Amino acid sequence: DSGVTQTPKHLITATGQRVTLRCSPRSGDLSVYWYQQSLDQGLQFLIQYYNGEERAKGNILERFSAQQFPDLHSELNLSSLELGDSALYFCASSPGTGAYNEQFFGPGTRLTVL
Amino acid sequence: DQQVKQNSPSLSVQEGRISILNCDYTNSMFDYFLWYKKYPAEGPTFLISISSIKDKNEDGRFTVFLNKSAKHLSLHIVPSQPGDSAVYFCAASAIGNQFYFGTGTSLTVIP
Known about the structure:
heterodimer; A: 114 residues; mainly beta; seven-stranded mixed β-sheet; 0% helix; 50% strand; globular; B: 11 strands
């Protein structure tokens, strides 16, 4: 158990809909990262927050947005969903910022868009 | 554009033998490399890392080798155990920026 929790575990929805994925980082970790893993793909970095502020942005679509709240939990919002958004979404946390910090991953949320 | 590549989707090894997982990268600015292990229904867990100032890092049964001129790194597991059966991802970053992950290699250790 990494100490990072993600809810829900599974989500099934229809095209055009909007969903919110939630992540609670390890106690004491200030950074939260979001990744997308599509079929046969590696983990694609989406976005990082550090202590409530956006720190780095990767291949995140404009239809997607995220935020980190004062209690440090984070939410990833996916809107106008398309079939291609079906993927595993992982959240990770680390104590500090920068890629030299080991990241601890949650179990992921599997999103299926029908 | 896949900057980190794992060209072998799967690998099978007998218990007790050596497992060698390979990873290639294209960005010469990458200076930090990691291996993560992933079991089904779980998130990836950190295994071992190496900085570009080194060419080898060892942690128990796991050793990572870095060949900067070839832009290649490998993970050696000796001896392999059935519990090592998992998907292994390599990842790289440049100057503390985001990680780029490979597509993973599924290792099966046969008892």
